[in-house]
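worker-03 picked up job from queue 'complexes'. Input manifest follows; two sequence lines, order preserved.
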Amino acid sequence: MNKAILSAVLGAALLATGCSNLQSNTASIRDLNDPSVSGHVLAEQVCSMCHGVGGNSINPTFPRLAGQQPAYLVEQLKAFRSHSRSDVAGYQYMWGIARSLTDKQIDELAQYYKGQIPVPGPARNAGLVAQGKAIFLNGVEATGVPACASCHGPQGYGHDGFPRLASQHDNYILKQLSVFKHTNDRYTGMGTMMSPVAYNLSGDQAREVAAYLSSQP
Amino acid sequence: MNILNWNKNFNRLREAVSTQAPVELWRTAAQKATWQGVSIALLATVSTVASMDAAAVPLFARQTGQNCQACHAGGQFPELTPYGRMFKLTGYTLGQRTSMPVALMAVFTSTSAPTNSSPNVPGSPQVGGVGTPNNGTPTFATASLFAGGKLTDSIGMLAQYSFDNYAGDTGQSGRMFSDNTDIRYAKHIINNQTDLIFGFDANNNPGVEDVWNSSGAWGYNVVPGSAGAGPSALQPLLLSQGLGQQAVGAGAYMYWNKTLYAELSGYRTGDGVFSFLTHNYGQTYIQGTNPYVRLALTHDWGTSNAMVGYTYFDANVYEGAVGSSLVDEHRDNMVDFQYQYLLDPSVVTVEMADANEQIFYGGGGATDTINTFRAKASYTYQAHYGASLSYFNASNTANNTSFQGCADGTAGNVGQCGAEGWTPEVYFMPVQNVRIGLQYTMFSTVNGTTLNASQNNTTMLYAWTAF
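worker-03 finished. Artifact:
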């Protein structure tokens, strides 16, 4: 009995070592302080644990990164690294991740996520989505909310430093709108543009536009 | 309490530290513990850690630069989040090596429980607690030093050395010993098509390698000193850590597609070259290599994740010294379930573990069984305030005369150690690495009978910190 177990364990061990030799071209490095590790490897070995492989995260605590605009992603990673983006979840989770990333790794990470295909979120209440779409495309004239589309693009795909919002988790969108509205934690770089927008948006309007965006492909 | 006072208290502590070796300090603090002492230590801790930034707290937080709640559900250490489990399964290697790969943990408790000698007689002692109930005197219960973390790109370790203030035979003289140790080598093959983690693990406590906190080591309800686990005489080996720091084991594991986890390990006596991993007293000997099998199915969806699992452990334990002719086989089967809801500001966790141990005596004769069921649900708000409710129910047979159990003639139920009850708890985490909690354990059964069970009800106030 005991010999059988020992051989099973040893067998599994040998098998696994064999696998690792076969796979030796696939780096399995999770070191965040090694500039020789490529952004691609970090994205798969580290970021995937929260943001999902390919950047389609499951839990809305973690924003989706698939298809995100590279210029925006670079800006955010640098803002985490320099601590200029200091919203609570940002410093709790991302400051440590970004602290030793090199500019080159950051560029490679941005290219990696640009190449990933976003998966739209689950369908939302049709009424909310329709209201949200109207706000996104036309803004709210009465309270001076500009059309989101004017900066984030007609389909919410973003461009350059304007982030992609389509297929983002609605809970994450709501959280960021509240960060822009109530704090200065993202009042840095291009973030200064969003504060006046969020300031005039009511809670209901924010929920509507978030429902619309999260269900967009 | 203002900052000035905090600092004053902190300075008092610092003065004390500078004149005595740390262990000596803890020892003295323990012996002289008073509410004042505990509160000074606590305040000092709070004020020190509050002034550090998030990247300066324990070992793994330093290594990853992240907040405790990235890995611990709602910040309730030691319960792990899916990310915390991945961190452990990938060998504690994520992040960057730190210049200070150590952390300290300390637990202060104040337990109030009856003290007479017979549990089923009014005013009798608590049955479940670890160590000696201290009747309301705030006491420094245990402290640990953690060392290790990321060693190479594939190898990492968590080694705990503890100072148990209750460990001595005379009750209050503590000692330092090698506690939970877990060393891993792990590879992660991941891309858009495949996701496979596989690794090897060596440890000194069956179950300490587990990432779902259902075994005794790192199990839920593990606030050191809790009464809610039931009497230790009655815990299956797997849950009681009966072989913790007695056996050493090694094995292989894999986690495929964040769906299927499988592990096979073998445990043997931790003597000879392995004795640095074990207690230097009261060695329990097991015969040959004993199998430990762990299977789990997991799923993540939306804000939730769940697990159903199975653990098997079969150990041949010598009744006496090695080579003694009597070897008892302890065969454990455990089914467990876990659910988590994680989305700021709320964290909900639900856990259940149903374990059965069969004991086959080397001397022949009737066999015995132990059954335990434990469940816990918790809610934590903003990783600061929380409440939990646990239920435990343990029972046993006492067929074989060699099953000592808890002989209690008064109650007329010799050998019955069963306990059942509930533990409601409230807790507060003023900063991410300090937890202050109040537990009340209500017994409905003690020693297999409801007779006077509630006389054993126990209140425990604790402060748990790591830095």
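worker-03 released lock.
The mean pLDDT of chain B is 74.
Chain B has one domain: 4-466.
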